[in-house]
Design a protein that fits this description.
This protein is of the alpha+beta class and 85 residues long. The protein is built from three helices and five strands; from the N terminus they run βββββααα. The protein has helices at residues 43-55, 57-66, 69-73; strands spanning 2-3, 7-9, 12-21, 24-30, 34-39.
Amino acid sequence: MSVSSAVTKDGKQKIYVMFHDGERQAECTLPDYGVVKNEGFREDEIEQLLDYMKREKQTILEQARSVNVMSAFMGKKKDTDGSTH
């Protein structure tokens, strides 16, 4: 799973959550729990992913807040202490 920083689209802030499982991938959004893209997941699996997002909303929001767009763009990884390399 990967999480974007907050993005403003159509005047509303959204966070994109991407799920990857081999060749399968799904892209969902918070706070509306929308499904932007689904390539290979069954409908019941998508429901499980959305349920996961609902349960872990606070954690996902914290991850989105910690995303440094420039570091991510440049391929730098953030350590657990917040430093990048």
